[in-house]
Design brief:
single chain, 3-stranded antiparallel sheet
Length: 53
């Protein structure tokens, strides 16, 4: 069982239709350490059906 507090964020198309930023910060209660992740996606095409995921 994981015992941690975690907060995450992700931008929406309201901010930008080409770039998406995301990340989280967590604190582990057992090991008393911070964990984190961050990243971005750049959409080459915004045409329907051309998913770049």
């Amino acid at each position: 069982m994981k015992n941690r507090f975690r907060v995450g964020l992700r931008t929406s198309d309201d901010l930008s239709t080409k770039i998406q930023l995301e990340g989280y910060l967590a604190y582990g209660l057992k090991d008393e350490k911070f964990k984190y992740m961050g990243g971005f996606k750049y959409k080459i095409s915004s045409k329907p059906g051309n998913s770049q995921d």
